[in-house]
Amino acid sequence: MLKVEKLNVYYGNIHALKEISFEVQKGEIVTLIGANGAGKTSTLQAISGMIKASSGAITLKGKPITYEEAHKLVPLGMAHVPEGRRVFAQMSVEENLELGAYTIKDKKQIASDIEKMYKRFPRLKERRKQLAGTMSGGEQQMLAMARALMSRPEMILMDEPSMGLAPILVQEIFEIIKEINADGTTVLLVEQNANRALQIAHRAYVLETGEIVLSGEGKDLLSNEQVKKAYLGA
Q: Boundaries of each ABC transporter domain copy (predicted)?
């Protein structure tokens, strides 16, 4: 589904991503874990065209997308749920969902998909006319995920979906990610909560200062001593 080869990203003189290579197979949940500043968000932003790669190659379903503009990736089947949710604060929940479907022309399909989102995220239905900026962090996270799903992506990138949420909501968000994947959407997940991320991931890559230092199946990295000490508080 996704292949990243020898990807380099610079911010001025800072070498943020150093020759990183990894892949995501169709139907997988793959997670990137690492400390703050390791390059996780930069990786997702380079993949989705939010920042430009300095060099390297990124392909989606075999099609080169390394220097493709972000908005052109949505019709190709990719969606990005950014860090910090980035909902349209002055628009209602329903308007946010409608904007998520901007690449879809069939109005009946959009209406049907909005109803599906309300079924998956009942709290959004209760707040369908409410301004998105007035909702809680957890509700905004659900809206950001639902908005991304409105484009019917084959692959979804998620950046820190559990950040700042109460433990009970963290549990709910991870259950929803598993459901989205079970419905056939491939997931690339960046997450500070390494423990929860590794529990649901098929495979994982560990980033340190812009380099991949470890990779393996999620369950194997959960029991890896190096990972336990560095990221799992063991």
A: 2-234
